[in-house]
Amino acid sequence: PRRIIIDTDPGQDDAVAILLALASPEEIEVLGITAVAGNVPLTLTARNARIVCELAGRPDIRVFAGCDRPLARPLVTAEHVHGRTGLDGPELPEPRMALEEAHAVDFIVETLRREAPGTVTLCPLGPLTNIATAFRRAPDIAERVAGIVLMGGAYFEVGNVTPAAEFNIHVDPEAADIVFRSGAPITVVPLDVTHRALVTPARNAAFRALGTPVGLAVAQMTEFFERFDKEKYGAEGAPLHDPCVIAYLLRPALFAGRHVNVEIETTSELTLGMTVADWWGVTDRAPNATFLGAVDAEGVFTLLTERLGRL
Ligand code: BDR
Ligand code: CA
């Protein structure tokens, strides 16, 4: 199986991504989950990650708490989307499994130094603070990662937190800048993809029809956080941003994109955190990321529902 570290700020869609990964042990081995501040503060994201592991019946997964604020700015959170706890919707018990004592950044550095080069994939689903801190502290690890498949940014869809920027990149643009300049092979799952992966009423009904605690919880989570996108954009249902990262690992053929240059805006107040992707190749800046732009949403939901049914 592909060995991954999930770096995350759960978040209902992060939760579904974690469930999808844990439901796919033949293809994916989760070495650990590292929590970061983002959708809600760190204490809650570290709590929510453990709640999700327990929901999946995997209290053995190691969960680490990481950075509690962006590198150079105050934390911006998204309770207006995800609710006060970040995981509003289902009634889930407080976690019993313990948080690891080590810091998430130390875990990332140690894992990449210990494992053979090119064997560990990083899957960031929130602001890139933990990953950038690890790269800054241990510059040798960037060339050891097999790849980084991250949810963040946008091209044609532009922004969801400001007119120009997507939430994960906007919250910590300095961190994103470090990661995009790191030289590690990056695949970006932007809003252009995730705004096409919507939980329609029929897809929600399919989760519920699984008749399991996981199916019910996922239906309730997406019902909660779709309210924001429905009101704001008239969307048909909740966009499953973060699960697309795991779906890409499982079925890359469901996605298409371009290898392009991506730079992060870190100074402009107007466009802070914008992912400036040279989609049309109008500069001679070297490509540093594969920017996905198309998705077979029906394929993603068929895969997701089938996998959730295994938990
Ligand atoms: C991203 O921001 C968060 O609210 C979601 O969990 C996702 O990672 C989408 O912009
Ligand atoms: Ca997230």
Automatic annotation (TrEMBL):
Molecular function, one GO term: uridine nucleosidase activity
The entry's keywords: Glycosidase, Hydrolase
Record Gene3D superfamilies: Ribonucleoside hydrolase-like
UniProt-listed GO biological process terms: purine nucleoside catabolic process
Domain annotation Inosine/uridine-preferring nucleoside hydrolase: ranges: 4-301
Entries under Pfam families matching the protein: IU_nuc_hydro
One cellular component (GO) term of this entry: cytosol
Superkingdom of source: Bacteria
The protein's name in its UniProt record: Nucleoside hydrolase
Organism of this sequence: Rhodosalinus sediminis
